[in-house]
Design a protein that fits this description.
The complex is a heterodimer of chains A (679) and B (155).
Chain A lengths: L10 H5 L3 H4 E4 L2 E5 L9 H13 L6 E4 L17 H20 L6 H9 L30 H5 L15 E6 L8 E4 L7 E6 L2 E6 L2 H14 E3 L11 H6 L3 E8 L8 E7 L11 E5 L9 E5 L4 H12 L6 E5 L11 H12 L6 E5 L2 H7 L6 E10 L2 E11 L53 E8 L14 H18 L4 H7 L4 H13 L10 E9 L6 E10 L3 E11 L6 H20 L29 E5 L14 H16 L10 H11 L1
Parallel strand pairs in A: 2-3, 4-14, 12-13, 16-17, 20-21
Antiparallel strand pairs in A: 1-2, 4-7, 5-8, 6-7, 9-17, 10-15, 11-12, 11-14, 15-16, 18-19, 19-20
Helix pairs in contact in A: 3-4, 12-16, 15-16
Chain B lengths: L3 E6 L2 E6 L6 H8 L18 E4 L2 E4 L5 H6 L3 E2 L12 H8 L9 H14 L5 H7 L10 H13 L2
Antiparallel strand pairs in B: 1-2, 3-4, 3-5
The chains are: A alpha+beta (679), B alpha+beta (155).
């Protein structure tokens, strides 16, 4: 294997070139190691299909192993709807090399697997000419999810379910308000637990979970905290976002509109991830012998970055820390998983050799996990003879990334609470080349004449924000697609026809037309009902997605039906992709009609399911999804529908009432305010 | 300090050492190894830990173990299966791939199983009404409703 590379390997192979990093054979079963992680989106099943086809094996003959820093590829974050795009080509390459070196799946399965088992794990995947691509067998079929039987039948599957020998349970006491520090902690000797303190970090560890919970509540009464940072006025966030110092993000400047005939501003509040389970983490601190490492179990989106952050925060070497992924409840972006893992490490440090399972409370999950930033955008356009002849888009936001390792800091919550702290810097944004954050999807896909698009990221904040599904695209698409409707209606043109008249991209026009057809565009509706459309191409280079919403409005907005048409290129698992789009549209319905993080000037007050309500079963609309038949390269489906859904619902509300609501969520109060503003 | 408490779980009589006010959920997960009832909020507001107590779906996180002990018995998601055969609701959920992260789904299966005992063929509206105390964050609501309706219509 010393010859020069004969073909260029996919980037994730170049970064992880040893065969043994990707593949092993255990007890006669081919085990595929991937760096992408199961977040509830079904990625392990989709990648099992890709790997099985590439190896020439049935799906049932491969087993997927969760990501592991010491023993698996580093594939970066599982985020941004990139997993199939990045891991797919890598697995195809691995399979093609395996087939080249073993002569492929000739003979029976057992002998083929035996030949795979004999391959040298050190084989350089970049130095072998891969066999020609194998035909698709599993890819393109709706393979059932590999992980669902455990979950539906109530078996142990989640990180929270791990019960290794010697397990201790842990809890952490968070400050009462962001920015507060621990001034005093009255001496307590709670039975059966150990109190762990380092600066303003306080936690408890014990063998019995009930004892630990009781101790935590007693500890809360024993702690005295300083005042924290003042929070902004929750009812005036648009002004707050526009005030103070900003980092300007010049996305595009083609001169912009010299004059504008139309101008409007849109707003979304802070949102919470609100995963159905609070975050957790498990850690075992080494007992001392050389070779014993700190071992961490986490549901993080990026176990390598988490490993590095833990090592940096504690002054350890990266090699001294192992992180492995274990599934937990649904992950929709950078939530508290990394923070919880580090909390577990800090508690485990006090009890070397014992695994400590740390779980956050529901309240901490909703108030201390990173939030999705509030945002506001002002759009202006110059309409000339019924067409758009100039466009500007200005968007104000906090940053959409504060993942571990960002801005050169560990970036994990408790690191900022230690006696020797590593403070959590203000959030930033992913680079524009990765889709940006504040400005994601801020450039209209339409032909609109000279454009000017600028992001304004507020650089100081007492509230920690980071990536949540679609990042800034949720607000930017809501704004652009609401504005397109406003322009269409002011020109007296049907909103679908108006969009098509400004769309040069045939794949875009196709999904808009199909969604309109399937969504009953133009058909009569009952009184106080309306139909609206929203469309975007996610991150400008991902999935094309159009959504038609039907709403009925009485004292509140009821979403009756959603029709989603998406072009995501070649579909690995059609039912899995549909499930992602249905879920994305339904979750976005919840964001759009219901959700808003609440706070007073001192503390977050939306700290349970009553104060942070999410969409319930009775309010969830039927969602029909059509996928465009395509052999083009696959792009992700999980973040395509959010912005279009928000706009479709708001446009449908306008259709129903004749009132434009530009502030989310579309609650009764927001609708009433919009009506009053028109008087 | 930790008296012995006897209760019936999934048809078996078990004895655990716990204070009377210990949440049933903690006992199920930590003493009995029944981790299928999930912890979602600890406040009885999400339904992820629903179990049947005397046939009624209740949040195990808000049920003291003493109350479970005084009942005729607890059935957890693990107890929905009969002789290794999943409950019709579980089969329908798997057939419809009606889950994403799945964290809510065992509590939903328990609530839906209770519904089917009192209303063997519920409509979609009746299923949605029955699941009002269950939360799903991934947005799988309509698949779940369809699955429960299908379970009810199954021969």
């Amino acid at each position: 294997m010393t010859s020069a590379p004969l073909v260029s390997a996919p980037p994730h192979i170049a970064a992880n070139p040893s065969l043994g990093t990707w593949l092993s054979v255990v007890d006669g079963v081919v085990v595929v190691h991937v760096g992408k992680v199961e977040l509830g989106q079904g990625i392990l099943t989709a990648l099992a299909q890709v790997a099985a086809d590439a190896l020439g094996l049935p799906v049932a003959a491969v087993r997927m192993r969760a990501a592991h820093t010491a023993d698996g590829p580093d594939e970066g974050l599982t985020a941004g709807s990139l997993s199939v795009l990045q891991a797919g080509p890598a697995l195809r390459h691995v399979g093609a090399v395996v087939r080249a070196l073993t002569d492929g799946p000739r003979g029976d399965l057992t002998s083929y697997v035996a030949r795979i088992a004999q391959l040298d794990p050190a084989t350089d995947l970049c130095a072998v000419t891969p066999a020609p691509a194998a035909p698709a067998a599993a890819v393109g079929h709706s393979e059932p999810r590999l992980d669902l039987p455990d979950k539906v039948l109530g078996r142990s599957r989640y990180l929270a379910d791990l019960r290794p020998d010697g397990l201790l349970h842990g809890r952490v006491l968070r400050p009462v308000t962001p920015g507060a520090t621990l001034l005093a902690l009255a001496a307590l000797d709670p039975p059966g637990v150990e109190v762990v303190r380092d600066g303003s970090f306080v936690g408890v560890v014990g063998a019995r979970e009930a004892d630990v919970d009781v101790a935590l509540s007693r500890l809360a009464g024993a702690a005295t905290w300083s005042d924290g940072a003042e929070l902004p006025d929750e009812d005036d966030l648009s002004a707050w976002l526009r005030a103070g110092a900003h980092e300007e993000i010049a996305v595009l400047d083609e001169g912009g509109p010299v004059a504008s005939t139309h101008r409007a501003s849109y707003f979304k509040p802070f949102l919470a991830h609100a995963s159905i389970a609070p975050s957790c983490g498990m850690a075992r601190w080494p007992t001392g012998p050389i070779g014993d490492r700190l071992h961490v179990w986490s549901h993080s989106q990026g176990i390598h970055a988490l490993r590095d952050a833990i090592a940096a925060a504690l002054g350890l070497s990266d090699e001294g820390v192992t992180v492995e992924h274990v599934e937990n409840a649904g992950c929709y972006g950078h939530n508290a998983a990394d923070d919880a893992a580090f909390d577990a490490v800090l508690l485990a440090r006090s009890v070397p050799g014992r695994p400590v399972l740390l779980r956050w409370s529901r309240s901490d999950e909703l108030t201390w996990g990173p939030l999705s930033s509030a945002m506001t955008a002002t759009l202006a356009a110059n309409m000339v003879d019924g067409r758009i002849g100039g466009w500007s888009h200005d968007v104000w936001s906090l940053g959409h990334s504060s993942r571990p390792g960002y801005s050169g800091a560990p970036g994990i919550l408790a690191a900022g609470h230690l006696r020797v702290p590593s403070p959590v810097p203000p959030p930033t944004d992913p680079p524009l080349a990765a889709g940006g954050g504040t400005t994601r999807n801020s450039v209209p896909i339409y032909t609109v004449g000279p454009r000017r698009v600028t992001g304004h990221r507020r650089t100081s904040t007492p509230l920690r924000t980071s990536a949540m599904r679609a990042l800034g695209a949720y607000l930017n698409v809501f704004a652009i697609e609401s504005f397109m409707d406003e322009l269409a209606l002011s020109a007296g043109v049907d909103p679908v026809a108006f969009r098509l008249a400004h769309l040069g991209d045939p794949r875009a026009a196709h999904v808009v037309r199909r969604a309109a057809d399937l969504g009953g565009w133009g058909r009569t509706l009952p009184d106080q009902s309306g139909r609206g459309i929203g469309f975007a191409r996610y991150k400008d280079e991902g999935a094309w997605c159009a959504v038609v919403a039907e709403v009925a409005v009485d004292h509140e907005v009821h979403v009756r039906r959603l029709t989603v048409v998406a072009d995501i290129g070649q579909v690995v698992n059609p039912d899995g992709a549909r499930n992602q789009l249905e879920g994305g549209a339904t979750q976005a319905t919840s964001w759009t009609t219901t959700e808003r993080v609440r706070f007073d000037r001192l503390r977050l007050t939306s700290d349970d399911w009553e104060t942070y309500p999410i969409l319930g079963f009775a309010a969830a609309p039927p969602v029909s999804v059509e996928l465009v038949d395509s052999t083009a390269p696959s792009v992700g489906a999980g973040e395509a529908a959010q912005g279009p859904t928000a706009a479709a619902i708001a446009n449908a509300v306008h259709h129903a009432l004749g009132v434009r609501v530009r502030d989310l969520p579309l609650t009764t109060d927001a609708v009433v305010r919009a009506i009053e503003a028109t008087r | 300090m930790r008296p012995s408490i006897r209760l019936s779980v999934n048809g078996e009589s078990v004895e655990v050492a716990a204070r009377e006010d210990t949440p049933l959920l903690t006992v199920l997960r930590n003493e009995l190894g029944l981790v299928g009832s999930r912890f979602g909020c600890g406040q009885g507001l999400c339904g992820a830990c629903f179990v049947l107590l005397d046939g009624v779906a209740v949040p195990a996180c808000q049920t003291p173990v003493s109350q479970a002990s005084a009942s005729s018995g607890v059935v957890t998601v693990e107890g929905l299966s009969q002789c290794g055969t999943p409950h019709a609701v579980q089969t329908a959920i798997l057939d419809g791939q009606a889950a994403q992260c799945g964290f809510c789904i065992s509590g939903i299966a328990v609530r839906a199983a209770a519904l089917l005992t009192t209303n063997p063929s519920p409509s979609a509206e009746e299923v949605a009404g029955a699941l009002e105390r269950n939360l799903c964050r991934c947005g799988v609501h309509r698949r779940i409703i369809d699955a429960v309706v299908a379970a009810g219509s199954a021969p």
